[in-house]
Structure prediction request, 161 residues.
Amino acid sequence: MVIKENHDKPDLSRQSKTKGRTMDGDGYVIVRKPNHPNANNNYVREHRLVMEKHLRRMLRPDEIIHHKNKVKTDNRIENLELLTAQHHRRLHNTLDKKGVRKYNVKEIEKLYSQGFSGRYIAKQLGIGKSTVASYVKELGISRPNMSARNENGQFIKREVV
Prediction:
């Protein structure tokens, strides 16, 4: 028997074959579980059920299940990762669609230390201002005596009187 490794969206259009499985509007497989405490209109996303079974506990609402290969219908446990909402946001803000880092943290550090604003750095690197701010905070970078900016968005050092 040959098993086809295809993780495209499954054909869930035949309800009789799927026994309560269908797709939601976001492209996730959902399963009919009317008695599940976190059911939404009697359905629960399948990847959450798979992780709950693996962990042998219910998931908290703040826990996010990430699909490592970005295929929303590939709900194998080895493709799922339990993350906090904050970690999940950071992951998607720092990786492109192929899972490659969008930018180098050293690049943020270099630009920020040169006096460029978080807004300017975010625009240059194609990331959010809050992502830049969180990395600046995490790296512990500070720029004393910098508040005014020139026409390029760089901070201008104030003269100490």
